[in-house]
Amino acid sequence: MDPVLLEIGNFSLRWYGVMAAAGFLTALYLFQLNRAKAELSGDQVINIMMLAMISGIVGARIFYVVQNWSFYRHDPGAIIRIDQGGLVFYGGFILALILIVWYVRKVCKADVIRVLDVMSPALAAAHALGRLGCFFNGCCYGKPAEIFWAFAYAPGTEPYKRYGSLPLHPVQIYEAVLNIILAGILFYLVRKGKRGVAMASYLAAYGVLRFVDEFFRGDHMDFLQGFTPAQVIGFAMMPLGVILLVKFLRQPDNAAKKHVEQA
Fold first, then answer.
1. pLDDT at residue 256 greater than cutoff 60
2. Rg (CA), the chain
3. Tens-place pLDDT, residues 54-77
4. Of 204, 205, 196, 202, whose CA–CA distance to 250 is shortest?
5. Residue 106 CB coordination number (10 Å)
6. How many Cα atoms occupy the beta-carbon half-sphere of 247 within 13 Å?
7. pTM, two decimal places
8. Cβ atoms within 10 A of the Cβ of 227, count?
9. 106: which residues sit within 8 A by CB, 6+ positions away?
10. How does residue 43 score in pLDDT terms, banded at 50, 70 and 90?
């Protein structure tokens, strides 16, 4: 695999940046399709998406740099080179969630839960495309595998530095496919499900997805009692998502209307 899509002279276009841009545009499109469910205007959707993108990148980069500080303390200039990969999803997810909740409550005066419902399929779809970028870029790679669909990376890439020419589990593809399926299910739940069901389902489902996917990852150097940091967070998301799912499923259909009236 080659992380560079196109190279002309000193200019190079990397797969990672292309797929990140495609993920943002896809998320924006899906958010716009369902914005009426959250009673948001088109401008509010764009503002929320821009806030999510910027805070998501910053949070994801901070989390990655902290995890790999032994490298970045010797090369601080590399901290801003996000075009080369190096983003941790949960870092971006947490920071973006905090700022979006604040913005929706204080500025939009909208139902936070319903907004998070509408954002759930958009997030899953964007994450799927982002993982394809990781696949081409050579980050977030898998462990060596003796399966016919395994992939080897070119000399000079991070996977090659660690495993040489050994074929690896395409864990990025695993997660991309599962996120696409999840996005379809969540899109349906936004249209047909009760308030909060899509958001809660995302928390529970992605927690399971990531917890399992991490067993096939080969890029981790840090572990907590044998588990990766992402598995620890994913494990916490599972019961939280299930508890919220039960809570929202048991609410009467007019719960959303009452919430808006009280606000």
1. no
2. 19
3. 998 888 888 888 877 777 777 777
4. 196
5. 8
6. 12
7. 0.85
8. 16
9. none
10. very high
Mean pLDDT throughout 172-199? Answer: 96
Which is nearest to 220 in space by CA: 72, 95, 88, 62? 88
| Three-state secondary structure readout of the chain | CCCEEEEECCEEEEHHHHHHHHHHHHHHHHHHHHHHHHCCCHHHHHHHHHHHHHHHHHHHHHHHHHHCHHHHCCCHHHHHCHHHCCCCHHHHHHHHHHHHHHHHHHHHCCCHHHHHHHHHHHHHHHHHHHHHHHHHHCCCCECECCCCCCECCCCCCHHHHHHCCCCECCHHHHHHHHHHHHHHHHHHHHHHCCCCHHHHHHHHHHHHHHHHHHHHECCCCCCECCECHHHHHHHHHHHHHHHHHHHHHHCCCCHHHHHHHHC
pLDDT in tens, 197-224: 999 999 999 999 999 999 999 987 667 7
Q: Could you identify the residue written with the tokens 């993982």?
A: 131
